[in-house]
């Protein structure tokens, strides 16, 4: 009997979604291997956010399926969501609550009891060097710090999969660099699988894998160096732009 | 786990409420004005004869009190729904809906939170009314509790259902008025049905009898006097349950309104 093979962190298979006359996703398929940082690169309107909405169970696909560590998001959403820590594109924090209260609320939503939640919150905030902000109201924090709080919140439940939907949107250069450093360090330390949607190529240049989404279709899928070689260019950015241009003309 | 989720959602609503003291003030000022000003003006115009659950003649302010408790609950129910619409616009709803908990349970927890806030405000208003000399029987504080809980749940569920269809803050504020004022005026909150019957306004009487808020008010009125009005309880519970089930369906991305339109397309 062959040994059981662990399910990939994410399997997206033949996913399609249409809004009226707009085909947001068209037969999209890719996988996120366990423990990898996978970048989902795409220009604005490529379908990244729609894909994330389906991945997180907020939207339902017209066709195809998504599974997270073997749990189907449509038929077993609770189990699939248990694996995830999510940072949404739009900042999602209760501005009237403190940092600690926001994280406590999230921990409660995930069923963490008080003592365990307090430990996880302290660890998450400490890990991102914002442990002293637990009692601060979110309204009083800068955009970059709020993003760190959101990342800390996503980590509170020790997720096996981290979903990041353009997490650096609205951040200055330094905050963006901090975010990149923190995510890659976390993935390396904890073995967390990461799916990172962005259109900033530099953020994900060190990713293990890159999926290029263009006009709702997978335009390329491979390692950063593999994509550059296939496009006969030196950088991932040049490869991405080349793929986007090629697809625009097709 | 479910209890932890429930407590987290109720805890957040209570925290938010604590930060919004103007909410409590406005929730109390509105019915207090009705109780003090409106009832003073109509005290001698609207004599209330002996009708159940009252065992004797009562003054108009005493008649109004259950209706005004209903008003407190009605506004709170709509306010909780408005908060949900705000959560949707601010993105917090996504956090709730991506929690690893069945969606119906998340919505139920929201309703429990709304009912808790409703009951707290109703009791505070009862104290205010007592300070103005408008009292209920002593035991009312106890007998009212289940009625207030059910009323808070039902009115919260109706508000929740509205959030399925009215998805933007500016539209919801208008819709609130469209729901609150007809529900209040076409009910027995301000006058008993026999008064309307005597005036010959049969169509208004028909609307009052069809209005679920009428049954909420009567349930509270009877409960305050230690009486159980089965029709009011059954109607209020049925409306609450129906509104909740329709809301669950509305928030189901596979069946409802959710997930039909793109947002922040990237």
UniProtKB/TrEMBL annotation, chain A:
Record bears the keyword S-adenosyl-L-methionine: no
MF terms in GO: ATP binding; ATP hydrolysis activity
Cleavable signal peptide: none
SUPFAM superfamilies referenced in this protein's UniProt entry, alphabetically: P-loop containing nucleoside triphosphate hydrolases
Matches recorded under InterPro entries: AAA+_ATPase (IPR003593), ABC_transporter-like_ATP-bd (IPR003439), ABC_transporter_ATP-binding (IPR050763), ABC_transprt_ATP-bd_su_PQQ (IPR022467), P-loop_NTPase (IPR027417)
UniProt keyword annotation of Phosphoprotein present: no
Pfam families to which the protein is assigned, alphabetical: ABC_tran
Domain of life: Bacteria
Keywords: ATP-binding, Nodulation, Nucleotide-binding, Transport
Annotated CDD domains: ABC_DR_subfamily_A
Domain ABC transporter: 10-240
Stated family: Belongs to the ABC transporter superfamily.
Descriptive protein name: ATP-binding cassette domain-containing protein
From TrEMBL, chain B:
Main localisation: membrane
Keyword line: Cell membrane, Membrane, Transmembrane, Transmembrane helix, Transport
Cleavable signal peptide: none
Molecular function as annotated in GO: ABC-type transporter activity
Entries under InterPro entries matching the protein: ABC2_TM, ABC2_TM_bact-type, ABC_2_transport, Alc_ABC_transptr_permease, Nod_factor_ABC_transporter
Domain ABC transmembrane type-2 stretches: 22-254
Transmembrane regions listed in the UniProt entry: 32-50, 62-84, 104-132, 139-166, 172-191, 230-251
Subcellular location: Cell inner membrane; Membrane
Membrane-related topology note: Multi-pass membrane protein
Entry GO CC: ATP-binding cassette (ABC) transporter complex
Keyword 4Fe-4S: no
Keyword Cell membrane: yes
UniProt cross-references to NCBIfam families, sorted A to Z: phenyl_ABC_PedC
Family from the record: Belongs to the ABC-2 integral membrane protein family.
Name the record gives this protein: Transport permease protein
Taxonomy of the source species: Bacteria, Pseudomonadati, Pseudomonadota, Alphaproteobacteria, Hyphomicrobiales
């Amino acid at each position: 009997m062959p040994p059981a093979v662990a399910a990939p962190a994410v399997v997206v298979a033949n996913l399609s979604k249409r809004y009226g006359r707009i085909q947001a996703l068209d037969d999209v398929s890719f996988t996120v291997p366990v423990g990898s940082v996978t970048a989902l690169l795409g220009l604005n309107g490529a379908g990244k956010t729609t894909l994330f909405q389906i991945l997180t169970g907020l939207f339902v696909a017209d066709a195809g399926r998504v599974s997270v560590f073997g749990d189907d998001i449509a038929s077993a959403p609770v189990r699939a969501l248990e694996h995830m820590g999510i940072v949404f594109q739009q900042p999602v924090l209760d501005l009237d609550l403190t940092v600690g209260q926001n994280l406590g609320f999230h921990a409660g939503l995930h069923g963490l009891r008080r003592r365990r939640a307090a430990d996880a919150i302290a660890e998450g905030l400490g890990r991102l060097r914002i442990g002293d902000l637990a009692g601060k109201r979110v309204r009083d924090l800068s955009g970059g710090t709020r993003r760190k709080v959101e990342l800390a919140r996503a980590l509170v439940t020790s997720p096996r999969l981290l979903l990041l939907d353009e997490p650096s949107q609205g951040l200055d250069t330094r905050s963006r660099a901090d975010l990149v450093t923190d995510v890659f360090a976390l993935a390396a330390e904890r073995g967390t699988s990461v799916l990172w949607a962005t259109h900033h190529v530099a953020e994900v240049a060190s990713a293990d894998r890159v999926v290029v989404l263009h006009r709702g279709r997978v335009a390329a899928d491979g390692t950063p160096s593999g994509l550059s070689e296939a496009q006969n260019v030196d950088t991932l950015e040049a490869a991405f732009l080349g793929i986007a241009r090629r697809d625009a003309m097709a | 786990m479910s209890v932890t989720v429930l407590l987290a959602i109720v805890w957040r609503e209570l925290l938010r409420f604590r930060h919004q003291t103007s909410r409590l003030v406005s929730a109390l000022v509105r019915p207090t004005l009705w109780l003090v000003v409106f009832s003073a003006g109509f005290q001698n115009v609207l004599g209330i004869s002996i009708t159940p659950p009252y065992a004797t003649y009562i003054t108009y302010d005493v008649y109004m009190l259950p209706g005004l408790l209903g008003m407190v609950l009605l506004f709170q129910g709509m306010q909780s729904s408005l908060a949900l619409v705000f959560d949707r616009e601010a993105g917090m709803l996504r956090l709730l809906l991506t929690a690893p908990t069945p969606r119906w349970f998340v919505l139920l927890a929201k309703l429990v939170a709304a009912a808790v806030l409703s009951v707290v405000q109703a009791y505070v208003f009862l104290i205010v009314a007592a300070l103005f000399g408008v009292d209920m029987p002593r035991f009312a504080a106890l007998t009212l509790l289940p009625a207030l809980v059910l009323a808070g749940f039902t009115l919260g569920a109706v508000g929740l259902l509205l959030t399925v269809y009215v998805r933007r803050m500016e539209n919801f504020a208008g819709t609130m008025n469209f729901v609150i004022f007809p529900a209040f005026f076409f009910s027995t909150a301000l006058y008993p049905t026999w008064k309307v019957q005597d005036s010959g306004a049969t169509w208004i009487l028909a609307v009052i009898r069809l209005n679920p808020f009428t049954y909420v008010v009567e349930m509270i009125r009877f409960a305050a006097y230690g009486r159980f009005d089965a029709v009011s309880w059954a109607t209020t519970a049925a409306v609450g349950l129906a509104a909740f089930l329709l809301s669950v369906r509305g928030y189901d991305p596979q069946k409802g309104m959710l997930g039909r339109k793109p947002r922040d397309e990237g």
